[in-house]
Specification:
The chain has five helices and two strands. Helix content is 75%, strand content 8%. It has 183 residues and is mostly helical. It has one domain.
């Protein structure tokens, strides 16, 4: 091993990465291959949407928290309004997140939505409204995770900036107080 060669970072959570990809790939593969081998739309719809729902749940509740340190959910308050809730790890923990895990998380999130979009365009071109429904459900679940995690990431950045500003302000304040108390 060459000591001058940079050390390659491995995935910190290979099992989580595997399941993050598994349901995405399974849903896309089943949808594409079922058109060739299965002649029953109901089976195609149910299995594909089930795999997309499993992917949605795994990404939202497991891989998002483990791979990028983010979690989101949406709830309805007492006034009947939709409220987004976000959780993120503290700044120190976020800084220690594995770059490969994070890269895999974000790229597969966007690539899956792009793949469903392309499949939707093919359904439109072939005038297959029923298959467009399947793609629409799967694309909606993918985009919901993209929107949720993107908002969560922006909220995490705001929290980190607010914490940094608060820390700097308290340090400046304590420095000023100590300077006047010495006199």
């Amino acid at each position: 091993m060459d000591p001058n060669q940079p050390v390659q970072e491995n995935y910190a959570n290979p099992k989580t990465c595997f399941f993050h990809i598994l349901f995405k790939a399974a849903g896309l593969a089943f949808y594409i291959l079922s058109a060739l081998f299965i002649d029953n739309f109901v089976i195609i719809f149910v299995v594909t949407v089930l795999l997309a729902a499993l992917d949605f749940w795994v990404v939202k509740n497991v891989s998002g928290r483990i791979l990028v340190g983010l979690r989101w959910w949406n709830e309805i308050n007492d006034l009947g309004e939709s409220v987004w809730r976000f959780e993120c790890l503290d700044q120190e923990s976020l800084a220690r997140m594995n770059k490969k895990d994070s890269w895999l998380f974000w790229w597969t999130l966007y690539l899956t939505a792009a793949a469903w979009t392309v499949l939707g365009i093919f359904s439109l071109i072939r005038f297959q409204a029923d298959y467009l429904l399947v793609v629409g459900v799967c694309l909606t679940l993918s985009v919901a995770n993209i929107v949720g995690f993107t908002k969560c990431k922006k909220d995490a950045k705001k929290q980190i900036q607010a914490f940094a500003q608060q820390t700097i302000a308290s340090r400046v304040s304590s420095t000023i107080q100590s300077a006047f108390s010495v006199v």
